[in-house]
């Protein structure tokens, strides 16, 4: 039987309950929620006057009511040492989600640790160390002393390049401005660590270098632009499942035509009609199906492109639109570099070199260099020529009266983790600049985002460009100590099978050495560890909220807190910054990452002084924080643009709507923000002029991809699904999720399954030249033959095992273009037999 | 008897979580009870036993609109024609579900073609042959299914629900 909670009533929120602002800590959208807490021995009543919801709960509530919460929105947690009831429910007054909850965010309460109700008991509660052959508890001082001593000793012998760091750079979860600043000040301030990477890629680099190089910050519009656009272009993104309430609350109204009043209001005197959408994706996603439901098939254009060829499509669109004259000449003249400068840019030294892979230039030069005919594009992309022309018309053909068409372009991991990231990103932004769709209502050329953002760190310029390919260096035996902050390479890297083999071997060498020494003899312990490191071993420190897969190899685990257990600030995909207030205690002695970083810095300072390294020790000063707010004031408030206007008190007063960054001032106690970037036509370059990019097609760019495609039968496209957040770091402990998703699925065409003798739910092995992994077969009639789609980064079947090590010039991985063979492993395991394999696609 | 069945079911699934909530509610009731000596509240919600239909009224794949535990809680009875987990009746093929989507409370529609209940609000789908498992959607729970009993005369009785119904904080108002 499918999982049921058998909860048939819930405690009622009393009028006296405390109310806290919450921004969902999962995806980029950052839906507004409210957390309510109240003492364990109290409850509200059914009468409207006796509960916080202010309605008669003796009545059935209607659809979309704010006066209901699901069992997943309820828990019993600790607050200031006391047990309290907790309800976290969507906030109807938040402009982001208007009361909608997603299948991820609406489980925040249940996804907290509750000793009383048995949820998330796997959270780390105390520092753990490798002692007597297994992970054993210790206290913070003891754990950090060992980490500092080993780290200092490695730096002594190898310099700071011997310290490898993997650290999240995102908002939400356990990220946010407080925690990126804490870790950033340690590794980029006190130290200048170069061998550093981010949570989802093997280097410390931007996912969207190209748009930034062109002067266009990647989050430049606001969510309302999706309601105002004449046409939305979605490239390599599946927003219904990965930016759910942005799609439901802002895209759908446009497609349904219910945002027409807003269009008339905001765009007076201009012809408006319900929105159209172009979806560029090799797969018929649930987004495509939902768009057809809402807008009708005639207003949805799904370009089921040959995987990895998006660049060709965008070059052809630019060519066609330029030739038709459907461009914004005034915008190009006022806001992009003139032709004379374009030539100079192209011939500048280093243009096209490793740090600047492709030349930036002016409009005319870019159109000339990127010229691609519709026929040529159709041949490479596999699309129908008439569909490419239709896309061009929907994007740029002037409206009645010659009015410019408003087109918003959103792209995400299909592009970011796809073929030739830099050029493809550039080709997309070329189109937006040519049509004047940046900085204007109904426009924007934006990444749609994964996590929320929350980046505040000292300069990373010392890392260089291209940045070090950290995972490769670790495989090659480099480095002596590895600090891991909420990253799980075992699940979320490329070439993962090889990485795991080497990482386990290197860390096992240190474990074996540690087993030879009593724990209490610190000097002997450090000596033993250093001997193993000199022989190729690696000392691994894992800071995380739960035991991770890479953590199985680590020697120290340090328990971190998440949003809600600490005050935490982040911004969403329209730069909307909010404060999630602390509404409960972290489990055990877990701490916010920023305070862990501060304590580690202090331990480093002490150890370095002991070792007589006074000048170096001095660099570790400035971490006298006792709260996360101290880190916020030291970081964001002091260093970020407009940060001086932003304080916890002001954010608290601004609730779940916050303000849109950057802050420009304060009026009547409220922070004044910025709805859209670049409304003045000045871009993020020294001269304020945006650049076009030369983006010629060169086939499958990353090493080994073309060979893999030729050799193996199936495309193993991959990505997320609605139910699971990120790599399931918390969902793997959710009965609701694991009942539905015991193994990753792989969507396969039923005829392919028949050929392989595979039935729905059977375990299959996906194997190629770099590794192998497993999934259960999900028959998918809409899947093209030989094109599969597998859930990414899942703990019970890591898709990264079969992704080769190929990256682009700036060390951006290509996860998406992966090919492998598939064979049956076993008939459906018991956990898969109770699953539904019916199509997830909504039909009427 | 009904209480025992429910207790067994609770015990089978998530004893700790279920009891935690029930006990918390009970403890709080006691604390706020105005007078000592009041009858103690039972730990489980008391579901009514309602006659929904007779087997003779059901045709395979023709959903019958019902309501349970009261008229404000719409639901459906379906004879699937194949034995399914949780199915009632001599053929083990009769199921009953709430038709209020547990995401935002929109009414679900039955799609005969693949025996699913579908939500026009935000595209959620529930499998009637798999205990109301959410095939895809935004709800954080699977679809509430009725505990059905079919007597010797073929009368179908609903006697419980296995998830919290949308729009009420107590399944029995």
TrEMBL record, chain A:
Keywords assigned? Iron, Iron-sulfur, Metal-binding, Oxidoreductase
Q: What is its EC number?
A: 1.20.9.1
Source superkingdom:
Bacteria
The chain positions of domain Molybdopterin dinucleotide-binding read 715-811
Q: Which Pfam families match?
A: Molybdopterin (PF00384), Molydop_binding (PF01568), Rieske_3 (PF18465)
Span of domain Molybdopterin oxidoreductase = 123-602
Q: What class of enzyme is it?
A: oxidoreductase
Q: Which PANTHER family does the entry mention?
A: NADH-QUINONE OXIDOREDUCTASE SUBUNIT G, RESPIRATORY NITRATE REDUCTASE
* Protein's recorded name: Arsenate reductase (Azurin) large subunit
User: Which SUPFAM superfamilies does the record match to this protein?
Assistant: ADC-like (SSF50692), Formate dehydrogenase/DMSO reductase, domains 1-3 (SSF53706)
CDD domains in alphabetical order: MopB_Arsenite-Ox
A GO term, aspect molecular function: arsenate reductase (azurin) activity
Show the Gene3D superfamilies listed in the entry: 2.40.40.20, 3.30.200.200, 3.40.50.740, Dimethylsulfoxide Reductase, domain 2
Q: What range(s) does the Arsenite oxidase subunit AioA/Iodate reductase subunit IdrA 3Fe-4S cluster domain occupy?
A: 24-119
Give the taxonomic lineage as stored in the record.
Answer: Bacteria, Pseudomonadati, Pseudomonadota, Alphaproteobacteria, Hyphomicrobiales
UniProtKB/TrEMBL annotation, chain B:
The GO terms describing molecular function are: arsenate reductase (azurin) activity
List the InterPro entries.
AioB/IdrB_ssu, Rieske_2Fe-2S, Rieske_2Fe-2S_sf, TAT_signal
EC number(s) on file: 1.20.9.1
In terms of superkingdom, the source organism counts as: Bacteria
Carries keyword Oxidoreductase?
yes
A Pfam family recorded for this sequence: Rieske
Keyword field: 2Fe-2S, Iron, Iron-sulfur, Metal-binding, Oxidoreductase
**Could you tell me which PROSITE patterns the record lists for this protein?**
RIESKE (PS51296), TAT (PS51318)
Cite the Rieske domain residue spans from the record. 61-151
This protein is called Arsenate reductase (Azurin) small subunit
